[in-house]
Design a protein that fits this description.
By secondary structure, the protein is α/β, with parallel strands linked by helices. The protein is built from 17 helices and 18 strands. The two termini are 42 Å apart. The structure holds NADP nicotinamide-adenine-dinucleotide phosphate. This is shikimate dehydrogenase (NADP(+)).
């Protein structure tokens, strides 16, 4: 059976029956696996001939393994005997790889057997710690081992925080990555489909720059499906991975090399990350939050930025400008200058909008569920905070701008809106930072009363473009990235 020697993607198969394992192998092949690991310890069978049938009928090059520690077979002696017997059978049938625990490989009887068989390659495994890793920083030794080992090494950690040990393994010299079947998710293991369609690890090498979203939780991130294809589209040698980070300071103390070149910063680290930067862009400093950190190539310093601000404000400005050009044929410096911007929310997105609007000369009125938070932000931008309950009655003038930067209307509460349809009549333009769903109830109702609407998806695209430019030093394939985002929402 043909087998390539470069990086391989393997799917581990744990099945109760031989038939099920053969069927799963076919699916793994269709989803892009190069190799299947046949976990014989998971099988129930009455005679060795069934295992022989499995190996003979395999449709993918295979690793035959039998894990002693997880087997259900009762006595130690029985378990080891079964293991030795089946692994020998695999050698006799010239399977591509046999994997065995260090304990089994060091048995005299097995060592002799292995020595006399040259067709099958041997993988010796050692489970240093069977528990999941507790922190992403625990993975640093895995990368050190991979970089320094003189022989082919498969080294990885399991659990959701272990994911980057798989995705970044090939950069540090790893020869094999595990991927799960699409309907059998395993925490910390990428799916075969994501490896083939999103990460494309065959393009990763020692020079690949690592980027990622540091956040907790991190599973929802659309970043990988956007940035990875964009890197390839522009010919930039980079990979973007989700990084589940608990302690942002410890993360930056641990991953200090220039390989880790840039980061998107998500909930709940946007504020704490400011303190981890060597330099912070003045706007991000005033906002008090960074959503992007880049390791400057010239001196390795961490520089923090906030691309949320420009993304949301420029999306609003462009929509107003378009309207003005259509109406009057005249473009003003900032169409927000002198306008009243009513802001709902005083969290990260709210702060970015408030500082951006202030910088454009708008008058900022803030409504937030937690009034004290609204008051503090209003003070910082020389604006005004009003009680949240009075939002619907606040109609001092017509033609105002409304910006929702609260989580109201976000899935699963997509039937909610922060403002009544009637109150929306006072606004010329309504912006919603919420982007799941794309067309929120607030935007639908605003459109119905004749306001210009700007979706959070537009902000999302623009902040991602801003990040991509900072990551790559200028490149950003706008049309390509727009298309990718619009396909995802
Ligand atoms: N489009 C984009 O690119 C983009 C970027 C960033 C954020 N966002 C979206 O913007 C929204 C806010 O994100 P964030 O990062 O600013 O989050 P955040 O820092 O956690 O702030 C959440 C804000 O929502 C308010 N809020 C939450 N639940 C509420 C409820 N049931 N009723 C009233 N107010 C409520 C909070 O009010 P309290 O202060 O009273 O808790 C706070 O003002 C989210 O929907 C997020 O997905 C979009």
């Amino acid at each position: 059976m043909a087998f390539k020697n470069s990086l391989s993607v393997c799917t581990p198969l744990e099945c109760e029956s031989v038939g099920e394992m053969l069927a799963s192998m076919k699916r793994a092949e269709a989803e892009g696996a190069d190799l299947a690991e046949l976990r014989l310890d998971s099988l129930s069978f009455s005679h060795d001939s069934e295992v022989e049938k499995l190996i003979k009928h395999r449709t993918l090059p295979s690793i035959v393994s039998f894990r002693l520690k997880t087997s259900g077979i009762s006595s130690n002696r029985d378990r080891k005997n079964t293991c030795l017997q089946l692994l020998r059978l695999a050698f006799d049938l010239n399977v591509e790889f046999v994997e065995m625990d260090y304990e089994v490989a060091s048995e005299d009887v097995m060592a002799e057997y292995v020595y006399n068989r040259s067709n099958t390659k041997l993988i010796v495994s050692s489970y240093v710690n069977v528990l999941d890793v507790e922190k992403i920083t625990d993975l640093a030794p895995v990368f050190t081992m991979l970089s320094h080992c003189q022989m082919p090494l498969i080294a990885l950690a399991v659990g959701s925080r272990g994911l980057i040990s798989q995705l970044l393994g090939p950069k540090f010299g790893g020869v094999l990555v595990y991927g799960s079947l699409s309907d059998k998710a395993v925490p910390g293991m990428p799916t075969l489909l994501s490896l083939r369609q999103v990460y494309k690890l065959e393009y990763i090498n020692a020079d690949t720059k690592v980027f990622g979203l540091i956040s907790n939780p991190v599973g929802h991130s659309k970043g990988p499906i956007l940035h990875n294809p964009a890197f390839r589209h522009t010919g930039y040698n980079g990979i973007y991975v989700p990084m589940q980070v608990d302690d942002v300071k410890e993360f930056f103390w641990t991953y200090t090399s220039s390989d880790f070149a840039g980061f998107s910063v998500g909930i709940p680290h946007k504020e704490a990350a400011v303190g981890c930067c060597d330099e912070v862009h003045p706007l991000a400093k005033s906002i008090g939050a960074v959503n992007t950190i880049v390791r400057r190539p010239t001196d390795g310093k961490l520089v923090g930025y906030n691309t949320d601000c420009d993304a949301s404000i420029s999306a609003i400005e462009d929509a107003l400008t378009e309207r003005r050009i259509t109406q009057k044929g005249v473009v003003e410096a900032s169409p927000l200058a002198g306008k009243t911007l009513v802001l709902i929310g005083a969290g990260g997105a709210g702060r970015a909008l408030a500082f951006g609007a202030k910088s454009r000369g708008a008058r900022v009125i803030i409504f937030n569920r937690d009034y004290e938070r609204a008051r503090a932000l209003a003070k910082a931008v020389s604006g005004e905070a009003l009680p949240y309950e009075s939002l619907d009655r606040f109609r001092p003038e017509n033609g105002m701008i409304l910006a929702n930067a609260s989580a109201i209307g976000m899935e699963p509460n997509s039937d909610q809106s922060p403002v009544s349809k009637e109150a929306l009549k006072a606004y010329e333009l309504v912006f919603d930072a919420v982007y799941t769903p794309r067309n929120t109830r607030l935007l639908q109702e605003a459109k119905e009363v004749g306001a210009v609407v700007v979706s959070g998806v537009e902000m999302f695209i623009r902040q991602a473009l801003g990040q991509f430019r900072l990551f790559t030093g200028g490149l950003a394939p706008e049309a390509f990235m727009r298309k990718l985002v619009l396909e995802q929402f």
